[in-house]
Amino acid sequence: MRNKGAAEALKKCLKGFLCLLFGLLCAFLALFFLAWANARNGEAALRSALDEGVKPLLLGGGADALSFLKAALPLTLLSLSVALAWQGGLYQLGAVGQYALGMAAALALNGRGLPWYAGLLAALAMGALAGAASGWMKARFCVHEALSSALLCFLSLYAARALCQAAPIPETVREYPAAAFVAGGALTALCFVCLYAAVWGRAVRLMGDCRALAAYAGEDTGRLTALLMSFSGLLAGGAGGIAVLLGAAEEPSLALLFSGPGIQSLTAAALGGGYPGGALVFGPVTAWLARGAKAMDSALFPGEIGEAALTVGLYLAAFFAFPRRKGGEKA
Amino acid sequence: MSFASSAVLYTAALILGAVGAGFLGPGWETALSLEGVMLLGGLAGALASHLPAALSLLTAGCAGMVYALIFVFPACRLRNDRVVSAAALCGLASTLAMLIARQLGGVSYTRKAYALLLGGENVTVFLPVGLGLALGGWILLGHTPWGLRLRLCARDEAAAGRWGLPLGRARLAGAALFGFFAGIAGLAALIALGGGWQLKWGVGGLGLLSLAALRAGKRKPLPVLLFALLLGLARAGADWAAQMDLGAPEALWPALCFLLAALLLPLGGHGKSRGSDEENN
Question: Distance (Å, rounded) from C-alpha B161 to C-alpha B148?
């Protein structure tokens, strides 16, 4: 049974990889047409598309390993939060809102005479609260968590922005990279331990496979839902706090949702087949491509092409790689 | 822009979005792509804003329809995870909108074509257009045999197929109408959000507010209209409060609007789960 699960996860990750390849192919075609519109010569356009478009995109911007890890860690944690919720059969579309809230809370407490973990704890708490709200609505009022989490995502993004306007970001944000990496590792380990080694995790995975069976087995699916969304929110909020500790924080705005960590985290989780292990693989891959997209020559090739490649990959993953649900159960 | 114009635009956007989502059937999953379709339709309409209002509205509707037919229809018809595909469509629409805007060197539009004076107040053409289209949509969906077939096909494809209902055509028509209404809603939304609004921010969550109004109203015409009006007024009030500089952060007011929408969500349910998610949603 365990081997079957691992084999299934690997198969879905391979499908996700193929979806991403197709997305990159679409990006290459877009780069070629843009280059051809400038050059009007097929060979020059092809060379331009490859040298100034594809090469920086695939090389990830050519930055050093540390700066790549600083970008990849928050995104990977965000993807993990989405994948964790999926394991319980829930859609976590509010992850980036919780991330922004966590980031805003950590920025508000950064450098105000408090220890480094104060901001992180505040970020974890804010993320958990925001996630719990969506889970509670599902459990108590049967509101589809995709709708409630997406709505609360916008609420969180605006609230985070309001928090940053009320408590302006300090001139110099104090960085604690070592602590951030340790915290990120600890949160990831906690996620895996809770999901695969704890009794609670077995109940969550049972609920993800078949909600009705979990209820029949005596599990309180409402409580599990609220706890799972809360834990997922905690990871997302923690990602925001860790981004501040790494010095990778940005001002919260709605742009995070569609052209930033929002869509990127969902892409990484979906390409990974909805498995936390897959999110750990595709999180860094997505971060790599996102950095590469920014490194392209923006005069010729807009960075949005990299984002378009990821969203095409996500769209295809919905058809081929992500576990399909039918009537609330995994197919 | 005056409060009245702003309120009319936001309400029209919300009610048109809600009616459009109604054509996709009872499931919420695919309708989550409303944000993306509204953005692309709104962008197309804004680019055509120098034309007469009718043409601009038609452009917006057709752009939304094309996007919905290319991407939303396969998501309705083929086996896929609809929430994930809807989220992908929102992201893709945002990316496409920004690419188009960048290639055109920015997007500027004029509101003159949409002006309509009523009692000295500019209520914009979206007042009659929004009400007329919404009424037409509700009649089509709720009081015609065609609408009944559409709803049945969306509700239970297997049963509809067994009884010989034309699934493919019904879903195609549903997706087309969804895109058309969402496109016009997006144009209203972009005009309401104003010239300083950036496309990378989408349509500011107005698609989700439409879905919240639809759920809170339990898909009944009058309650949905009233909730759309409430949320439209709240959103217009948020813009007004932000302009008034009342001593609170600017972003607080739209946040309160979404908080109101979140508080309205439970109104559309039946309390604790009594069945599957599809029954209760």
Answer: 14
Give the span between the Cα atoms of A331 and A316, in whole angstroms: 17
User: What are the tens digits of pLDDT across the range A38-68?
Assistant: 777 778 888 888 888 888 888 877 767 888 8
pLDDT tens profile B119-134: 777 778 888 889 899 9
No. of helices (H) and no. of strands (E), chain A: 15, 2
Q: Contact at 8 Å (CB) between A230 and A93?
A: no
ipTM (interface pTM) = 0.91
A74: its two tokens: 């928050």
What are the tens digits of pLDDT across the range B15-70? Answer: 999 999 999 887 778 889 999 999 999 999 999 988 888 999 999 999 999 999 99
Chain centre to alpha carbon of residue B40: 12
β-strand partners of B121: B118
C-alpha span between A68 and A61 (Å, rounded): 9
The predicted model scores a pTM of 0.91
Q: Give the separation between CA B125 and CA B223, rounded to whole angstroms.
A: 23
Q: Which residues of chain B have a CB within 8 Å of the CB of A262?
A: 91
Q: How confident is the model at residue A328, as a pLDDT?
A: 42
Contacts of A264 (CB under 8 A, 6+ apart): A75, A78, A79, A286, A287, A290, A310
CB contact (8 A) between residue A328 and residue B211: no
Residue A192's Cβ-count burial label (10 Å; 0-12, 13-18, 19+) is middle
Give CA separation, A133 vs A151, A226, B215, in Å: 11, 8, 18
Per-residue DSSP letter, B68: I
Asked if B137 has any chain A CB less than 8 Å from its own CB, the reply is no
Average pLDDT taken over every residue of chain A:
87
Residue B117 forms beta bridges with which residues? Answer: B122
Q: Are strands A325-326 and A329-330 parallel, antiparallel or unpaired?
A: antiparallel
Shortest distance, CA B214 to any CA of chain A (angstroms):
11
- Three-state DSSP at B209 gives helix
The DSSP secondary-structure symbol of A210 reads B
Element (H, E) at B122: strand B121-122
Residue contact B255–A158, C-beta within 8 A = yes
Q: Which residues pair with A330 in a beta bridge?
A: A325
Residue A116 tokens, joined: 């480094």
Name chain B contacts of A310, Cβ cutoff 8 Å. 91
Among B258, B271, B273, the residue with its CB nearest the CB of A151 is B258
List CB contacts (< 8 A) between A221 and chain B: 273
